[in-house]
Amino acid sequence: MTSSIIPDENEHLITGWEPDVPADDTLVRQAVLAHASWPVEVARALGRPWRHTDRWAGGWVGDRGPLTNLVMLLQPLDDPAAVTAEIGEMIPAHVPYCLVSPWPTPDLRPQGLVLLGHPPLMVRFPAHHEMPAPHGVEVREVGTAEELAVAEQVLVRGYPMPELEPLTPGSLLAPAILDGLTRVWLGHVDGQPASVAAAFRHTDVTLVEYVAALPNARGRGAGAAVTWAATLAEPDSPVVLMSSDEGRPVYEGMGFIPVERWTAWLRP
Q1: Per-residue pLDDT at 24 exceeds 80
Q2: Could you say which of 3.40.50.300, 2.60.120.560, 3.40.630.30, 3.30.750.24 is the CATH number of the domain covering 126-237?
Q3: Which ranges form a coiled coil (predicted)?
Q4: Taking the model in full, what pTM does it have?
Q5: 50 with 89: CB under 8 angstroms?
Q6: Stretch 258-264: mean pLDDT
Q7: Cβ neighbour number for residue 255 with a 10 Å cutoff
């Protein structure tokens, strides 16, 4: 009886991470593919270099800032030297990038990377929620290049990303991104731009990204308001995001569930 369940030695046992496995094989796979496609989408809109291989995907969005350039692994890392060499062909040695793996990795310090930590993957399943309306806060969806430039400034100053200032308009968010699967919301406090969030639709899930609020607007509900707008962009679909430990309680309060921890490395 036992021998009947033992696979043939030549039979391929699916891991769920082969390139030809359907995107919706698991929700985690959908989350990985969404995170992998996001930097490609941003770089493509900017006209910057990007790559999407069987092993990894990422984009060279800018020359400054440790979190400007994201690279996402699509398979467990079994050959660190080869993969980092491939990434190095796209992103030159003087440009930093963040490498994210959904799996534990070998020590990548020999490849010149520094361990950043193990951020949690958060998931929110479809559930009705009334859009919050904090006093003095107004949320508007970005629809023009001018509005996108304002949202970009809020993102850089609110995240914050001081290494990107002074910011050249269009360094992170190009108007072409609004022609694709990305939507952006700008929050205003007492009429002034104060917060930003984006929603990227991929593999039937919504990825929430680029959440930021200016320091003088914190505590007013502006950050939560735009985050809710992005979260409810597709109310019938699961929503995924990669959180920090500091931000995790906020997302849990919105109904997000921590699913697993990923691994983040930085090439400074």
Answers
A1: yes
A2: 3.40.630.30
A3: none
A4: 0.94
A5: no
A6: 98
A7: 15
